[in-house]
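Renewal narrative, Specific Aim 1. Our central claim is that a sequence can be written position by position from structural information alone. The example that follows is taken directly from our test logs and has not been curated for this report. It begins with the structure tokens describing the chain, in the order in which they were read.
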């Protein structure tokens, strides 16, 4: 049985009660909306299709993103990059929607806004995949009652053409020079050496050099460990790659020289155990 009453605040409050089911309650600004919701709720009960939608109405996408970032993302390969994407989504206006309010139309408008704002199709596809995974996790693991995953029926944008650009003459040299920490040109003897240009992270230049020589991914370079580097055989073993299969990367003479310099530096500081580049993606 459904009852619709007006509260002192002016809102219309609905209560739907049926023996054997928990009472359902919701408030609306208009009486017509309250009565329509009551009819739908009673119809679901009559058909035996009742579900508790309270969690879907009260839990926002932001809250689910936070839980997913805390409980799921750290256990995945490439956790650091995924956490960065999750934090970016938490700042997006779509995260303020309740889960039940995120319809395919809402997702489609968000997709179009991201593309219009300059995001590449491949970037938007990754974001859609992540939002879809988070919502699926909420449905399966948190038992949040939703009519379905709204991302599933949304058309994906074209990923765009693969990049095949190579360095123009002089570009590599300018890039490597920009990665070196050095004193900038200033006026006055007192400030000489105080103004620095480039990067003060000593690992950036050799990391970029190795990336150029091997075409290894960022995550593969950061995860590279000394026990998997064989300078004699001129190879680097990657036991855990993006596609889940191990592979061996041949090392050019320049790559060997870069790694040899890093190895000598590590040995002079007490050993070469652990990561080749003791830094994170952040």
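The sequence written for that structure reads:
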């Amino acid at each position: 049985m459904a009852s619709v009453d007006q509260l002192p605040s002016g809102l219309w409050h609905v209560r739907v009660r049926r023996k054997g089911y928990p009472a359902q309650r919701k408030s609306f600004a208009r009486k017509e909306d309250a009565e329509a919701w009551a009819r739908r709720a009673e119809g679901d009960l009559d058909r035996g299709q009742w579900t508790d939608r309270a969690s879907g109405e009260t839990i926002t996408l932001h809250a689910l993103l936070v839980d997913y970032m805390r409980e799921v993302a750290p256990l995945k390969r490439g956790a650091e990059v995924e956490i960065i994407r999750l934090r970016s989504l938490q700042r997006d206006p779509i995260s303020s929607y309740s889960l039940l309010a995120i319809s395919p139309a809402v997702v489609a408008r968000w997709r179009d806004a991201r593309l219009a704002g300059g995001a590449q199709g491949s970037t938007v596809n990754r974001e859609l995949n992540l939002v879809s995974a988070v919502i699926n996790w909420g449905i399966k693991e948190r038992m949040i009652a939703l009519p379905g995953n709204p991302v599933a029926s949304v058309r994906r944008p074209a990923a765009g053409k693969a990049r095949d650009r190579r360095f123009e003459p002089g570009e590599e040299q300018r890039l490597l020079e920009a990665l070196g920490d050095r004193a900038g040109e200033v006026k006055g003897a007192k400030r000489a050496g105080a103004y620095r240009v480039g990067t003060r992270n000593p690992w950036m230049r050799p990391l970029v050099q190795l990336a150029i020589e091997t075409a290894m991914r960022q995550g593969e370079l950061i995860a590279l460990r000394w026990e998997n580097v064989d300078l004699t055989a001129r190879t680097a073993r990657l036991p855990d790659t993006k596609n889940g299969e191990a592979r061996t990367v041949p090392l050019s003479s320049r790559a060997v020289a870069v790694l040899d310099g890093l190895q000598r530096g590590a040995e002079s500081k007490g050993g070469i155990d652990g990561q080749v580049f003791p830094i994170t993606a952040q």
